[in-house]
Design goal:
The chain has 6 helices and no strands. By secondary structure, the protein is mostly helical. The protein starts with a helix and ends in a 5-residue tail after the last helix. Helix content is 66%, strand content 0%. The chain is globular, with a radius of gyration of 16 Å.
């Protein structure tokens, strides 16, 4: 029985690790689902801090900007938003217009 519990625990950890390796598109789609709750959205934001591999491209940056702008307007934790911004190098393909610059300033993100 202990062995079975150990295997179930290992499978559960492996499955959660695999989920963390999603794409910006996958997690932004999760964030924008019509039925998404605040908890669903915040989970999507958390997952956007642990993506695997390079996700830096113009489409991903535009998606992230929309998600982060909405999350900031909803009053979500600024430390989490800062972490997402810093994980994605502050969205380098997005021009530093008023919106992105305000988001960086509001979260205190350290951008290159």
């Amino acid at each position: 029985m202990r062995r079975l519990a150990g295997i179930a625990l290992l499978l559960g950890l492996t499955a959660s690790t695999a989920l963390a390796c999603g794409t910006v598109q996958m997690w932004s789609d999760t964030y924008w689902r019509p039925a998404a709750t605040d908890q669903n959205r915040q989970t999507a934001l958390q997952q956007l801090t642990v993506l695997c591999g390079s996700q830096n491209n113009a489409d991903a940056d535009r998606r992230l900007l929309a998600v982060l702008t909405d999350a900031e307007q909803r009053g979500y934790d600024r430390a989490l938003l800062r972490h997402v911004l810093e994980t994605h190098r502050c969205l380098p393909s997005v021009p530093r217009t008023e919106g992105p610059a305000r988001l960086v300033a509001a979260t205190g993100a350290r951008c290159p």
